[in-house]
Amino acid sequence: MTPTGNSPKILVTGGAGFIGSHTVVSLVEAGFEPVIIDDFSNSERSALAGLRAILGRDVTCYAVDCNDAAAMDDIFQKETPLGVIHFAAYKAVGESVAKPLKYYRNNLDPLLLLLELMPKHNVKNLVFSSSCTVYGQPEELPVTEETPRLPAQSPYGNTKSIGEDILRDAVRAQIPVKVMALRYFNPIGAHPSAQIGELPLGVPANLVPFITQTAAGIRSSLTVYGDDYNTPDGTCIRDYIDVMDLADAHVQALRKLNEDTTEASYDVINIGTGRGETVLSVIKTFEEATDVKVNYVIGPRRPGDVEQVYADVSKANNVLGWTARRSLAESLRDAWQWQQKISL
């Protein structure tokens, strides 16, 4: 896939990460020219080779810290982008509790810098990577965008709430940016080519990489934290969305912002499937989809875990014209194919 030469450029901070790299693919397929900015502190350079294999060419990448004001200013000057998709952030909940200042500095300072550089370079469109963690344990399900945000359970979660507040206040002050904050639920899966996927550093914090690593024999067993919740099988419920569906949502958000003729706007949109799956149902679906057994044990509840959360996605359907298309079984097959590739 070759750029036309006049394809609109999109800066993708954290573009070598799990969600960022898949969004780069969706952007190219939609006719945009992504420009990755990633310091590789929380990602691997191998993602660039995976992107090359999928796209048949290299993607421009700056190995730059998004906190580096001079370097970021130079990139805006050189690339003259149509918009920015901002993924770059640390995301390990446990580490954020132990090192809160590291998380506040890394996750908030680059956002402030973007809000200074975008008007300077006349760049108006910003898609912000937010999270369903802002909802905590909601009183009613499914959660809509009007569901009250609850106090964050971790500094990581709090950086997403504060990030949203910064963006909302910037728009209220008529800083000329148009912003869409996408509140992700639980991204899973991998590109069907198995060239890119999730690369957790150390012990995975998310369910699906732990399932695939256990199935591959990297982990001896998977611990299911609690089976006495008020759910059909006693295990926690989450809304698992395929990473390629999530990537497509970013493209739709970007298009929507570009159509918006106002000087400044702010909106939040849930990105999920609208369905909740228990931990045990995900394990069972994985086993059925791959014909591989997963060794798991039931452990005690884990402090801070929300019992159940899943999205009302009608706003994404109506505003973005987007809906999740891939099934849980497809996502788990792709995740397993990716795990097999990186385990070789």
UniProtKB/TrEMBL annotation:
Pfam families cross-referenced by the UniProt entry: GDP_Man_Dehyd (PF16363)
Molecular functions per Gene Ontology: UDP-glucose 4-epimerase activity
Keyword Endoplasmic reticulum: no
Source organism, top-level taxon: Bacteria
Reactions catalysed: UDP-alpha-D-glucose = UDP-alpha-D-galactose
Database matches in SUPFAM superfamilies: NAD(P)-binding Rossmann-fold domains
Entry keywords, A to Z: Carbohydrate metabolism, Isomerase, NAD
Listed GO CC annotations: cytosol
Co-factor requirement: NAD(+)
Pathway annotation from the record: Carbohydrate metabolism; galactose metabolism
GO term, biological process aspect, one: galactose metabolic process
Enzyme class: isomerase
InterPro entries: NAD(P)-bd_dom, NAD(P)-bd_dom_sf, UDP_G4E
Residue ranges of domain NAD(P)-binding in the record: 11-334
Gene3D superfamilies linked: NAD(P)-binding Rossmann-like Domain (3.40.50.720), UDP-galactose 4-epimerase, domain 1 (3.90.25.10)
Family, as annotated: Belongs to the NAD(P)-dependent epimerase/dehydratase family.
Subunit structure: Homodimer.
NCBIfam families recorded: galE (TIGR01179)
PANTHER family recorded: UDP-GLUCOSE 4-EPIMERASE
The protein's name: UDP-glucose 4-epimerase
Gene from which this protein is expressed: galE
